Amino acid sequence: MTVVVATENFELYHGVVNELRDRGVTFTTVEPGDPLPDRATVLIRAEDDERFEADADERDGTDAPNVETVVADPENPRRAVDEALARLRGGEGRTIVGIDPGTRPGIAVLSGDVVVAAFHVPLADVAETVRREVADAVDPVVRIGDGARLQGAQLVRELEEVTVELVDETGTTPYLGTGARGMGDVLAAVNIARLEGERVEGREIEPTAGELQVIQNKSRERADDNREIDEELARRVAAGDLTLDEAMDEHRDGDDG
After folding, report:
1. Number of DSSP helices (H) and strands (E) in the chain, helices first
2. Residue 82's pLDDT band (boundaries 50, 70, 90)?
3. What local confidence, expressed as pLDDT, does residue 199 receive?
4. C-alpha dihedral, 80 to 81 to 83 to 88, nearest 10°
5. H-helix segments, 105-256
6. Comparing C-alpha atoms, which of 147, 165, 198, 148 is closest to residue 97?
7. Sheet strand arrangement including 2-5
8. CA pair distance 7, 46, nearest whole angstrom
9. Per-residue confidence (pLDDT) for residue 243, from 0 to 100
């Protein structure tokens, strides 16, 4: 099975080839319109290269019904390679994003059953990262683990424009052997992505006293004067109405007043 790149678009050619090399994928390149290799499974081309496919059929009678075609955008070669790899492995190609929530969530992006990207970013960057990954995807779904209640609820609210499922994340964090430190959140996100959950359109959480105290403790750790925000501000942080920094500013302004 081979991925074939056939395009006259210089930008697309180099973008796709570099992506394939970075991932260690076996591929070959041909001139647009030339016969495809016998082992060709997926063809990557630009939209403007369609005429060359038609010319090839007329010239040598070649018809390759078993070769799937991925029409690539020169500005997003990674998306084309993601789709090609999913087709190469027989996946349906649906974009699924799994999130293991927390203060620094793990994110896994699957195309079909193939993991095509992974991230480990601060909570504040998760929504934008997910939006970028699902842009232009057909019927994407985001699956969020139900373990970290407050952070998970915040992400559900921030990702209201996409389909979100809440997943029971029990048992999704794998055992990590020597040298695998730091990978747990991302691997858990992969497992979460592969589990069907319950579709949600919002999630309102009543924070516990312990969860509020954690927020207050964090504010004290950040404060130069070792003062913590009050419970009401902590509750607004838990609800996603304020960031911790905004709550600390309000607390400071209130004291100054």
Report:
1. 9, 10
2. confident
3. 92
4. 140
5. 123-134, 149-158, 184-193, 209-222, 231-238, 244-256
6. 165
7. 27-29, 2-5, 40-46, 68-72
8. 6
9. 80
pLDDT of residue 214: 85
User: Residue 60 burial by CB count (10 A; 0-12/13-18/19+): exposed, middle or buried?
Assistant: exposed
Q: How far apart are CA 225 and CA 116, in angstroms?
A: 45
Sign of CA dihedral 120, 239, 171, 161: negative
Residue with tokens 């559900």: 156
d(CA 81, CA 90): 14
SS3 of 44-92: the string is EEEHHHHHHHHHHHHHHCCCCCCCEEEEECCCCHHHHHHHHHHHHCCCC
Residue 50 to residue 212: CA distance in whole angstroms = 59
pLDDT at 178: 84
What residues contact residue 221 under an 8 Å CB cut-off, 6+ apart?
none
Average pLDDT (36-40) is: 85
